[in-house]
Design brief:
The chain contains 12 helices and 8 strands. The protein is of the alpha/beta class. Helix 11 links the parallel strand 7 and strand 8. The structure holds 2-phosphoglycolic acid.
């Protein structure tokens, strides 16, 4: 089985209710059905999830994801949202480990391992994010850094659990900076990630895992990124807030992925 291809929108903390639902409607009404094996995923703020799920439930190529969830199932955790709550809304994906959460909320490997396991228990698919800061790349240590972020979390999963995980390589220096990794830089890391999966699990499983690139992905660079053999799609921040730009990236995926 080939890895499925995803183009995922990460709206972050943008779009209040009405503008968000307008943007979603604009995107889904303009999208011709995607070929089998390709999906578009929208990860809006929590306030949109229920409406977004209702608006997309009849489409087999468009899914909704959350941007985070709490590690516990329920309880006295003021301000938090749990994985069972997301599952109850029929949400399909949950982004975990985004560098902004690692930076601003101290999320680390131990916590993220527990979150991934909780999400998997609810039959949701985690989109596990990782990637190196600029100085680490300048020092030529990016593969060792990424291997550590993979091992401390994915190394704790069974092959059956791993099959449900989507990976997103997001070099921190490329996020929101306009400075994208070149297709060659991204492909070199994606090939390294796939070889890690083959070594840790099996070659067969490694081929099934979707590995997304994230970091200033935009209409002008999406096709070149998607032409790389180990890039199965993108996690898109800034460019996902504009319907035309996001649709152009999804269309680039239709041709190439
Ligand atoms: P960006 O964000 O596309 O704005 O660089 C990507 C991300 O943080 O997921």
């Amino acid at each position: 089985m080939k890895a499925k291809s995803l183009v995922v929108a990460n709206w972050k903390m943008n779009k209040s209710y009405v503008p968000g639902i307008m943007l979603l409607n604009q995107i889904i009404s303009a999208l011709d059905p995607l070929p089998e094996g390709q999906e578009m995923v929208i990860c809006p703020p929590y306030i949109h999830l229920q409406t977004a799920q209702t608006l997309t439930k009849d489409r087999f190529d468009v899914y909704i994801g959350a941007q985070n969830c709490h590690v516990q199932k329920e309880g006295a955790y003021t301000g938090e949202i749990s994985a069972p709550m997301l599952a109850d809304l029929d949400i399909k994906y949950v982004i975990l480990g985004h560098s902004e959460r690692r930076r601003d909320f101290g999320e680390n490997g131990k916590m993220l391992t527990a979150k991934l396991k909780q999400v998997l228990r609810q039959n949701l698919q985690p989109i596990y994010c990782f990637g190196e800061p600029l100085q680490v790349r300048k020092d030529g240590q990016e593969q060792a850094f990424v291997e550590q972020q993979l091992q401390e979390v994915l190394g704790q999963l069974s092959p059956q659990q791993m099959e449900q995980v989507v990976l997103a390589y997001e070099p921190i220096w490329a996020i929101g900076t306009g400075q994208t990794a070149s297709p060659e830089e991204a492909e070199a890391m994606h090939a390294f990630i796939r070889s890690y999966l083959a070594k840790t699990f099996s070659e067969e499983l490694a081929q099934k895992i979707t590995i997304l690139y994230g970091g200033s992905c935009k209409p002008s660079n999406a096709s070149a990124l998607f032409a790389q053999p180990n890039i199965n799609g993108a996690l898109v921040g800034g460019a996902s807030l504009n319907a035309d730009d996001f649709l152009a990236i999804v269309e680039a995926g239709r041709e190439k992925l």
